[in-house]
Amino acid sequence: MIATLPDAETVLGRLADKMRDAIAFDAKLVGIYSGGAWLAERLARMLPGDHPVGYIDVSFYRDDYAERGLRPNPATTALPFEVGASRIVLIDDVLYTGRSVRAAINELFDYGRPQAIELAVLIDRGGRELPIEATYVGERLAVARDASIVLERRADGKLELTLEDAQDTSRA
Amino acid sequence: MHNPQLNAEGELTHLLTLEGLPPEVIGRILDTAVPFVSIAEREVKKVPLLRGKTVFNLFFESSTRTRTTFEIAAKRLSADVINLNIGVSSTSKGETLLDTIDNLAAMNADMFVVRHAESGAPHLIAQHLSASGKSHIHVVNAGDGRHGHPTQGLLDLFTIRHYKRDFRALAVAIVGDVLHSRVARSLIHGLTTLGTAEVRVIGPKTLLPTAVESLGVRVFHRMQEGLDGCDVVVMLRLQNERMRGSLLPSAGEYFKHYGLTPEKLRLAKPDAIVMHPGPMNRGVEIDSAVADGSHSVILPQVTFGIAVRMAVMSIVAGN
How far is CA B129 from CA A61, A70, A170, in A? Predict the structure, then answer.
């Protein structure tokens, strides 16, 4: 298990390098709120080509609604382009169980039939509960099951990873 | 005192009234409704939250618009919806209200949306479900007697917040038949809970409840004074049946004094919005030039009403 977390800005640079020559020139970047949304905005500026940014909030598609109810203050999903026939890169901060990504893919299909969906994540911490893998990974980390990695955005816009003890490990 | 709408954790499990509902609960419903508005613009106008749940619309009193918007809201949440117009079925055969509820609970209902002519009927149903060990069934009040119409109050609050943002800086005037209006009662409770700077009611003495000031409103009997400088004008429907009694001389006389015309609207702020819960009586409480004019947000109210009802149903069904 790790003692310190890597610098988020360095990992973001590495993720952008992996995506640079691989993603379609017109791929749409769809960030999953909230960490993935910040990453999508940053990546759109870092990557060559024209990459419109969309945002997705998976609150209405989560599979734990029956047990936990609706989460407070859901954000509005905003996809300012045709999803049908688009090449989409879903972007999230931490890939863990894969449940958020499952929910996001389901929501995307309620907007249309994408031509392709790829997945880019800053951190892959293992622990998958669904058969989902990322196409582009910034860094792979091993973290205790009861800890959660949280991406934060500082006042100056820089991104930062923090480790929190959490009962709730089901979010990522 | 225990609030029967909230569970042991203080979460909303039924929506019976806006009276006594904490501001953070109202705020959460309004916040949750925001992302539901855009669902209507998508290719698939549905989210899967209530998939596999059965919602009964129990309308003991007829209503087309409210029932339709609740039905659309439940369907956009992927619930199965059964509409029962009970005024013309079971009760006419002598079945009691609670027997009807027990029978529908035995059909594995998950939620009752209740409209009833008697004040307190949804409350009675929620209590009965709790006492008979069926507290997993949720109750949403769709209008009870003169008491309340909480989802209408919430959609009015949502509309006001959408156009005007901060309640603490607003003067809101509610005009007309406040006495018989459950819409007005719910809206007044909601507005005062959210700290609205000034809530006014305007109407003839015969159509205002006695001691209406105790609800925290300023009372006006003349439009010229009541509309002066207000940000929001909420026109109430004048129910035609009131004309037959001794409360009003005639529809024409009422329109002359309390009908909202472009001239009277000029007393309000230049950017004031005009609302109406519908259905409208054009030429009785509102002039067509106002109803169809640039200040009117009457049709957005209908659209927002679906999103607000989706928010209410998805919050209570999850608690």
Answer: 29, 23, 33
